[in-house]
Write a structure and sequence with these properties.
Blueprint lengths: L6 E6 L2 E6 L3 H30 L6 E6 L2 E6 L2 E5 L5 E6 L4 E7 L7 E6 L1 E2 L2 E2 L3 E14 L2 E7 L6 E7 L4 E6 L4 E4 L6 E7 L2 E8 L2 E6 L2 E7 L6 E7 L7 E7 L5 E10 L10 E5 L31 E2 L2 E2 L1 H28 L8 E7 L2 E9 L4 E4 L6 E9 L6 H10 L2 H15 E12 L2 E6 L8 E5 L5 E7 L6 E7 L10 E13 L2 E7 L6 E6 L4 E8 L1 E5 L3 E9 L6 E8 L2 E10 L4 E2 L5 E5 L4 E6 L2 E6 L2 E7 L1
Antiparallel strand pairs: 1-2, 3-4, 3-47, 4-5, 6-7, 7-8, 8-11, 9-10, 11-12, 12-13, 13-14, 15-16, 16-17, 17-18, 19-20, 20-21, 21-22, 22-23, 23-26, 24-25, 26-27, 28-29, 29-30, 30-31, 32-33, 33-34, 34-35, 35-36, 36-37, 37-38, 39-40, 40-41, 41-42, 43-44, 44-45, 45-46
Length: 626
């Protein structure tokens, strides 16, 4: 048989293999290979079928209708029977919708569930865990939550990998969790007494990062996910050390004597602005002389036994006691003023402004009060517009404050100190400062009334926009200053008048121009060269996803729920999204889809690819739209 000539014909999924003059051994090898090919091909097809049952870039809609909550995924919907369901969150990649319900086992806690679409239907809700805190996060397909430990009452930090049906408790006694996108590590905090401690969980084990944490912010859904945190400064407890920590890297120290940070102006990958200060500059004593600051440190309560003499208690005891009592009054004044300044109620403006970005740290200007910063540039070279001030020291000292405290109240002392600080500040006008290729530059920004002007930079930081209130205070006039290659502002240029509202899109400013006494007007976009009309007869507009412009027309405010007509502005003009939309219901997704409730029938509609379709009637609330 081994010498026989064989003809074989193998056909696997349309692939035909022919062979002649093959031995038995070769024939068997080819048959095994053919079977393997068949198995692999079948696995691929099954995988495609399974993958097809899990839609990518899903359309998710959760809404309330009557007394029920409806979850809709890619046109297929189900009713969540538990009326306590809340905190709906979506994982777009898997199409899963997560939510919490009142726990069936623990008062004040929640049970965590999810639903997902499988082929042509949504499966019944599946339990993830019991007895969790209400707040949870869904990041990169994983669920992060706090689960109460019934033995000690503290909370365990947990991660659920739904694909693997696996729950991992990564640490006990966790306060907060800060997961990062597309990475296997996370940050979390614990309380050790009154001390907040930051930890990092990586490679299956937690490690301590820092103690004395004052502030943490987490930034996800960006190219480089990261956290920014502050910890108490080792040199001065009124200041902090500022750090940034990107995924898969160690924390980077930005500044070790931070007074304040402009988080509201921060955009990831852009400029982070912060202020530094010496110990004296954050204290009221920069303005009011505390001549007893050092000597009071050595004043202690006198003991009667230490002042005994042949004639009884010596006169020195009364003098020491009086000195100690005076010291207690001064300490009370110091504590009250320090607490008032810590609460941000007043400050001595002798701080230095810095900016941090991927290129490093840059010093912009000195003698700035963070409360008198008008705007900063999010991107491009660091830039700031502020009121330039200096401190003129007075002749008031601690004895004056003690006198007020003895005859009045501590509130009077604080009010008097606040007035002294305010009176010590001398304004030198508005100033523009920046850091460019030649280093730090500073210019007077003249021609604007700081009491009536709102400033902003274009997104790239190459232009200043100034909105100045008119004499009646009802409308804004738009001016602009361009910046040359040396970061020198040009003279102001008048752009338009009669502006009632504005927003920024890229390097352009959008604004609604209306006449006094009228509720509607025209929407314009100004890019630094010319103003282009985008829409007319609009009563308002919004900007979604930093770029999609929605014009709002035909507002009806007479009903309990104000309604309006919504249009999306496109390159070809306007496109109607829907009429009679309940204003508070309008939702817009990142992929330019909209969901909203219409008119008297409370009709839920979805706008997609230029078409509006009806989903359901009698809808009272849109809970989630992705």
């Amino acid at each position: 048989m081994g010498n026989r000539l064989l003809k074989i014909k193998v056909k696997v999924f349309g692939l035909e293999i022919r062979g002649e003059r093959l031995s038995k051994k070769v024939r068997i090898s080819m048959l095994v290979a053919a079977v393997l090919i068949a198995v692999i091909a079948a696995a691929v097809i099954i995988d495609q079928i399974v993958a097809g049952s899990r839609p990518q870039n899903n359309s998710v809609l959760v809404f309330r209708r009557g007394g029920e909550i409806v979850v809709r995924i890619d046109g297929v919907q189900t009713v969540v029977s538990d009326t306590s369901a809340c905190e709906f969150k979506c994982d777009n990649e898997s199409g899963r919708v997560f939510f919490a319900v009142d726990s069936a086992y623990s008062d004040g806690l929640y049970d965590l569930y999810y639903v997902e679409k499988q082929r042509s239907e949504i499966a019944e809700p599946r339990i993830i865990d019991y007895g969790i805190e209400k707040d949870f996060d869904v990041v990169s397909g994983k669920v992060y939550y706090l689960k109460k430990n019934i033995q000690d009452g503290a909370y365990d930090g947990c991660i659920c990998n739904v694909d693997k049906n696996k729950i991992e408790a990564f640490s006990a006694n966790v306060e907060s969790i800060y997961p990062l996108d597309n990475c296997d590590e996370l940050y979390f905090t614990k309380m050790h007494g009154n001390n907040r401690v930051l930890y990092k969980y990586s490679d299956g084990a937690p490690s301590e990062v820092s103690r004395d944490i004052r502030q943490i912010l987490c930034y996800n859904k960006i190219e480089n996910p990261h956290i920014i945190y502050e910890k108490k400064s080792q040199a001065n407890e009124d200041l902090t050390e500022l750090y940034i920590a990107f995924s898969e890297s160690e924390p980077e120290l930005i500044c070790d004597n931070t007074f304040s940070v402009l988080y509201d102006y921060y955009t990831p990958s852009g400029n982070l602005y912060y202020f530094t200060s010496s110990e004296e500059s954050v204290s009221w004593s920069y303005v009011i002389s505390d001549q007893y600051a050092e000597s009071d440190k050595s004043v202690i309560k006198p003991q009667r036994k230490d002042f005994l003499s042949f004639f009884g208690i010596s006169a020195e005891y009364n003098a020491a006691l009086h000195e100690y009592q005076d010291k207690l009054v001064r300490d009370e004044i110091r504590d009250a003023l320090n607490q008032t300044m810590e609460n941000g109620e007043f400050s001595a403006p002798v701080f230095t402004a810095f900016a941090y970005n991927s290129n490093g740290n840059f010093k912009l200007a000195e003698n700035i009060d963070p409360q008198n910063v008008y705007t900063v540039s999010a991107f491009g070279e660091p830039k700031i517009i502020f009121e330039s001030t200096e401190i003129v020291k007075g002749d008031t000292d601690m004895n004056t404050l003690v006198t007020i405290a003895q005859r009045s109240t501590m509130d009077e002392v604080i009010e008097y100190a606040r007035s002294l600080v305010a009176d010590s500040v001398k304004s030198n006008g508005m100033e523009f400062a920046a850091y460019g290729s030649s280093g730090a530059v500073s210019h007077e920004l003249s021609g604007y009334d700081r009491q009536k002007t709102l400033f902003s930079f274009s997104r790239d930081g190459g232009r200043i926009f100034a909105f100045v209130r008119d004499t009646l205070g009802e409308r804004l006039n738009l001016f602009t200053n361009s910046l040359d290659s040396q970061l020198t502002p040009s003279a102001q240029i008048s752009v338009d008048t009669g502006i009632s509202s504005y927003r920024f899109v890229g390097n352009s400013v959008l604004y609604l121009k209306t006449d006094v006494g009228k509720n509607t007007g025209d929407i314009y976009a100004y890019n630094g060269e010319k103003a282009v009309k985008l829409s007319n007869a609009a009563s308002a507009f919004t900007v979604e996803n930093s770029e999609d412009i929605i014009a709002i027309k035909g507002q009806n405010t007479s009903s309990a729920q104000p309604t309006a007509d919504y249009y999306i502005c496109t390159e070809d003009g306007e496109e109607l999204i829907g009429n009679d939309i309940v204003v508070s219901s309008f939702k817009f997704s990142e992929d330019k889809k909209a969901a909203f409730i219409q008119g008297d029938n409370a009709r839920l509609c979805v706008f997609k690819s230029g078409k509006t379709s009806s989903v359901a009637d009698g809808v009272s609330e849109i809970i989630l739209f992705e």
